[in-house]
Request: fold
Amino acid sequence: MDIEFREGISEVIATTRNDRPNAAPIGIINRKILYAVLYKESHTFSNVKKNSQLVANFVLDPVLYVRTAFEDLDVSFFRQDRDAPVLQAAYAWVEFKCSIAEKPTRNRAVVHLHPVKSVVLSQPMTPTNRAFCALIEATIHATRYHKLKDSKYLELALRYESIVRKCGGARELEAFQLLKKYLV
Amino acid sequence: MDIEFREGISEVIATTRNDRPNAAPIGIINRKILYAVLYKESHTFSNVKKNSQLVANFVLDPVLYVRTAFEDLDVSFFRQDRDAPVLQAAYAWVEFKCSIAEKPTRNRAVVHLHPVKSVVLSQPMTPTNRAFCALIEATIHATRYHKLKDSKYLELALRYESIVRKCGGARELEAFQLLKKYLV
Reply:
């Protein structure tokens, strides 16, 4: 079973490491080549810069998306049986060798991704859930609010709560409650 | 491989039939029991009422979501080798026996869904794409605009174009262009 990054942007949790492993949501961009655009000040980028390694974790748990967007995960969330940093929660992952192509902006860098290994543990048959998508959108706005403190982003993030309540399960509701804690 | 409808609402394309097969996007709701809420005036509901059969098609193609929301599909889009109405584009499907539990609203009915058969043809490993989700949201607003002609829904639908352009592939862009045609 091959893992396919479809044309456009696929949302995953990237894991990298230095002395300790790190996890953060990123988009894997497929526009003829695979790459990611990383904030230069992020742990993800500084780790990639150091050892050229990044793992894309496929994760169904919305709480983990929100958590990794805002805080560092304890090492217990990572597998101990792998050389690469891989999340326990990943049902599949792709390890990349990275090459940095500096982008002409101050804050962000383009990182080219070359697949080294891919592992599929299970293949969940889960159709699109609007609540999961709404959580990703809300998390994006919430991280902007967290950084810039512009109330516009707070309003945009909170707007997704109704979709999460209508379409989500217990785990999506828990993720949104957690998100709101990061917004106070 | 079992098909799992997670807690909350899963977005699928429902196929039903009477003399001819019909396809339309619906949500499969899992709140301890599986059910759907259908508009009583829809083809989907009148077909279910007639023969108690509904198939949930798992489809990756965003163009088909938009198309089935607004128009009838030609029979060539359906498999000829199946008794149940199944889309050629489905990578998996679940056939349900339905029982109607009239809801105390004028326009909509609750339909309980009892799985009869499930088939998995392939198991695509595709992480969440924000453009695909944005298309589903835009389609929901667009069908409301189509029905009610309230410009609020038109604005809400068009607001998703930037996410589709940023995160989508060629097929998501094509789907959004098609959606805009139904909005004029």
About this structure: Chain A has six helices and six strands. The radius of gyration of chain A is 16 Å. Strands of chain A lie at 8-17, 21-31, 33-39, 53-58, 92-102, 108-120. The CA atoms of residues 39 and 46 of chain A lie 9 Å apart.
